[in-house]
Write a structure and sequence with these properties.
CATH topology of the largest domain: TIM Barrel
Number of strands: 12
Strand content: 5-15%
Bound molecules: 3-methyl-2-oxobutanoic acid, zinc ion
Radius of gyration: 27 Å
Helix content: 40-55%
Distance between the termini: 43 Å
Number of domains: 2
Shape: elongated
Oligomer: single chain
Number of helices: 17
Length: about 425
């Protein structure tokens, strides 16, 4: 029986905190709608004490979202917890997420508090939060650099005070999967069935997804993550990656989530439209190149059987189609297919001639546009003079005959308007 993993999305809180990622209230509300459609279990809407805008956004999301738990972050102090509770007043299923740092470095250098003080404040914050809502999560910030016995004591005390989720953040992203799994297993042992153990991994060493997966295998049942992996510094565990690891490798991983994976790419696109950057081109699952193939051998393989080089059907994550990028590494097979798609079924001789021109052009420039391919076809089929470099072939110019009975199909004419992919 597959174990259910709770997906706690923090795109609108940890994600939004990162440089270049702030969103307006309207954008946060629209993104929240997308996250609900995506099927996240918990949606962390913001940090209400941080600003009036965040307070307003959490309130608006709490009022609009019915089916998904809505969380608000609060430091372990009365002011923050009360503010979070107020922002969540209209929520159908509110969660207060309160935290305090527990590592000595944070206690000594940042908070100037003793371990005992931090423990007392953590317990008091959980108790106060429980007076407002049933669903309380406690996070021990910088857990991975916290003395393990002390972390266990904090877990026992906060769960004893009423926290239903105990979160183990790798706040600075310094953990490795094996040691993180060991730590999580100890915390799972301490809290038992009294609370769900959660993890919140940052990506400073590029290990956020690996660490989250190791934690699941060690007994964590909630993963905190963000769309496109945005978040403080190098970001958080990427939602689309952890979800697809579990889905694609279900032969090996007995876990399941409620995420509607065909919404992953639309969610990524919506977020990219709201913040100041999109995912890197080679980002797993949602990057521009995640389903793109340029090398001739790869293109030939994918055209014969997609699964030779693709472990995920792009449609499964909402990517419209896999992309064969035509460039200097491409082969005849891919070029012939693109000509076909553009409306020019070529004879073998015509394809050879177009291919010779194509490779010469591809040696000089990256990523050949569809209109440039059409121009090459025109040269070969028409025997016409090469068009000026970068000339755009407009539908009106080509919507006639290419000579020798080669009628320019309407399908091709229509495509030229949106030719470059
Ligand atoms: O990284 C972190 O420790 C956090 C906590 C507030 C959960 O974001
Ligand atoms: Zn964080």
């Amino acid at each position: 029986m597959a174990q259910r993993i709770t997906i706690f999305d923090t795109t609108l809180r940890d994600g939004e905190q990162a440089p270049g990622c702030s969103m307006t209230v309207a954008e946060k509300l629209a993104m929240a709608g997308m996250l609900v459609d995506l099927g996240v279990d918990v949606l962390e809407a913001g940090f209400p004490i941080a600003s009036d805008g965040d307070f307003e956004a959490v309130g608006a999301i709490a009022g609009a979202v019915r089916s998904t738990r809505v969380a608000a972050l609060a430091r372990a102090c009365t002011l923050d917890v009360e503010r979070a509770a107020r922002a969540l007043e209209r929520a159908a299923s509110p969660r207060i997420h309160t935290f305090i740092a527990t590592s000595d470095i944070h206690l000594v250098c940042k908070l100037k508090k003793s371990r005992a003080q931090a423990l007392d404040e953590a317990v008091a914050a959980v108790e106060l939060a429980r007076r407002h809502v049933d669903d309380v999560e406690f996070s021990a910030e910088d857990a991975t650099r916290t003395d393990t016995e002390y972390l266990e004591e904090v877990a026992r005390a906060t769960v004893g005070a009423g926290a239903r989720t105990f979160n183990v953040p790798d706040t600075v992203g310094c953990a490795t999967p094996d040691e993180f799994a060991g730590l999580v297993a100890r915390i799972v042992g301490v809290v038992g069935d009294a609370a769900e153990v959660s993890v919140h991994c940052h990506n400073d060493l590029g290990l956020a997804v690996a660490n989250s997966l190791a934690a699941i295998q060690a007994g964590a049942r909630q993963v905190e993550c963000t769309v496109n992996g945005i978040g403080e510094r190098a970001g958080n565990c990427s939602l689309e990656e952890i979800v697809m690891v579990v889905k694609v490798r279900r032969d090996h991983l007995p876990y399941t989530t409620l995420i509607r994976t065909e919404k992953l790419f639309p969610a990524s696109q919506m977020l990219s439209g709201f913040i100041s950057f999109g995912p890197q081109p080679n980002k797993a699952i949602v990057g521009r190149n995640a389903f793109a193939h340029e090398a001739g051998i790869h293109q030939d393989g994918v055209l014969k059987e997609r699964t030779t080089y693709e472990i995920i059907d792009p449609k499964e994550v909402g990517v419209p189609e896999s992309r064969l990028v035509l460039g200097k590494h491409s082969g005849r097979h891919a070029l012939g297919q693109r000509c076909d798609t553009l409306g020019f079924p070529l004879t073998r001789e015509q394809l050879d001639a177009v291919y010779r021109r194509f490779t010469a052009l591809a040696d000089r420039k990256k990523g050949i546009l569809d209109e440039e391919i059409v121009a090459l076809v025109k040269e070969v089929v028409d025997g016409g003079a090469p068009p000026p470099a970068k000339a755009r072939v407009e539908p009106a110019t080509v919507r006639g005959s290419l000579g020798r009975g080669f009628a320019f199909p309407m399908r091709a004419a229509r495509r030229l308007g949106s030719a470059s992919r």
